[in-house]
Design goal:
Layout lengths: L3 E12 L5 E6 L1 H6 L5 E5 L10 E4 L2 E3 L2 E6 L4 H6 L7 E8 L12 E7 L4 H9 L6 E8 L9 H5 L2 E7 L6 E2 L16 E5 L2 H14 L2 E5 L15 E4 L2 E4 L6 E3 L6
Bound molecules: flavin-adenine dinucleotide and FE2/S2 (inorganic) cluster.
Length: 256
């Protein structure tokens, strides 16, 4: 796929929970082509500091606008929290391999997300709104501060189940406490994104029950284009780059 580097105007920045922000920018050309699971590489400042772009999943793409959903964790992402309406945003993308769309005969589609790993699943939920399968989001966060209103998922017909480490919202414990919602059916398809230990537990569950799945991985990135090999991770096919060979991989091929 052709990557486009462009500057788009910021439309809005919203703090949607104590931890998370949503940044929306006007980008009709990008909104038209981006697929669930792909990411964009953002130049967060106009100077050289930080030097490298920062990768973010596309959270939503509709009505000519693109949204990211992010948690400020360091210099780059904190700079994004200062963006104002009309500011130019330098974006490279869409990048990486998207999720495979579920086949028509799939009876249950399960998203398993930890924290900010929920980001690629909103655009995915939008894309499969018309699919007849039961759709479930199993979401795990550290505490209430790491949850957010999930009505947009519900509007897309997705049942939302939440677990928090401290039990402040939903079931107390890790997201694996919610695995009993997953149908042990050969057609069930699992899509996961989040911390590596969480994805390892999803892989173990899928292997035990013979279920198919895909996982979106995160790694610190430099070029974002498959050139520097800095984001390589081990897989059953050898080392692969998250930015170019991924970020979406067959769940069974990941080596944790
Ligand atoms: C394909 C992809 C999609 C992503 N999508 C999102 C998203 O939708 N929303 C979101 O909030 N974040 C997302 N991230 C993570 C995001 O890119 C990082 O949080 C961001 O680059 C951190 O930059 P910084 O300058 O704020 O922090 P830095 O100062 O660079 O780092 C702060 C801390 O975060 C760690 N860190 C940095 N990048 C990563 C990473 N990729 N994975 C794990 N730890 C990291 C650093 O080691 C350090 O401890 C994604 C990453 C990838 C690779
Ligand atoms: S960031 Fe350079 S190869 Fe992935």
């Amino acid at each position: 796929m052709k990557q486009i580097q462009n500057t788009y105007p910021v439309v809005a920045l919203k703090k949607i929970s104590p931890t998370y922000f949503r940044l929306t920018f006007q980008a009709p050309s990008l909104a038209k082509v981006v697929k669930p699971g792909q990411f964009i590489h953002i130049k967060v400042s106009e100077g050289f500091e930080p030097f490298f772009r920062r990768p973010f999943s596309v959270y939503r793409a509709h009505q000519g606008k693109v949204e990211i959903f992010f948690e400020p964790v360091g210099k780059g992402s904190c700079l994004l929290t200062a963006k104002k309406k009309g500011d130019p945003l330098d974006v490279l993308g869409p990048l990486g391999k998207p999720f495979t769309m579920p086949a028509k005969d799939v009876k249950q589609i399960v998203f398993v997300a930890g924290g900010i790993g929920v980001a690629p699943f909103m655009i995915f939920a939008d894309a499969i709104k018309g699919h007849k399968a039961e759709k479930i989001l199993l979401y795990g966060g550290r505490s209430k501060a790491h949850t957010f209103p999930m009505n947009e998922f519900r509007k897309d017909g997705v049942k939302v189940c939440v677990a928090t480490d401290d039990g402040s919202v939903g079931v107390k414990g890790r997201v694996s406490e919610l695995f009993n919602k997953i149908a042990i059916d050969p057609s069930t398809k699992i899509y996961t994104c989040g911390p590596r230990p969480m994805m390892a537990s999803v892989q173990a569950f899928a292997r035990i029950h013979g279920l198919k799945g895909e996982a979106s991985c995160e790694e610190v990135m430099a070029c974002g284009l498959g050139a520097c090999l800095g984001c390589s991770i081990p897989t059953t096919k050898g080392y692969q780059t998250v930015c170019h060979d991924g970020p979406v991989f067959d769940l069974n091929e990941l080596v944790f």
